[in-house]
């Protein structure tokens, strides 16, 4: 069943991602480790859990002003639940002159499904906000917290 879901998830992502927007995979620890991580989900999603050291920037409320202290040549990785919202924020960053912007492949869902850690204000957690019950089907690990 996992392989079927993986194939279905890959198919979903193919339909969501622009082929010319760069992605980075969760196993690229060296690049992820030196990047600025931007969580483009809504505040409640971020509060449930996020990638360690990620900065919340939101989607509906995103403002380039939050980037004023980040150099334009800094590696920036954007993410959301699956990568659709983050890709849109990533395009805004590229348009603003950021030269090394990547979308986290599969978003935080794929990250968690790969067994990678997430955190909240208290430290490591197994909780993950699935955005909605419909989107939650793509989460195979973690504890769904709406």
Automatic annotation (TrEMBL):
CDD domains (alphabetical): RHOD
Pfam families in alphabetical order: Rhodanese
Top-level taxonomic group: Bacteria
Rhodanese domain: residues covered: 31-120
Annotated SUPFAM superfamilies: Rhodanese/Cell cycle control phosphatase (SSF52821)
Sections of the chain in a coiled coil: none
GO molecular function annotations of the record: transferase activity
Keywords associated with the record: Transferase
Keyword Transferase listed: yes
InterPro entries assigned: GlpE_sulfurtransferase (IPR050229), Rhodanese-like_dom (IPR001763), Rhodanese-like_dom_sf (IPR036873)
NCBIfam families: rhoda_near_glyco
Annotated protein name in UniProt: Rhodanese-related sulfurtransferase
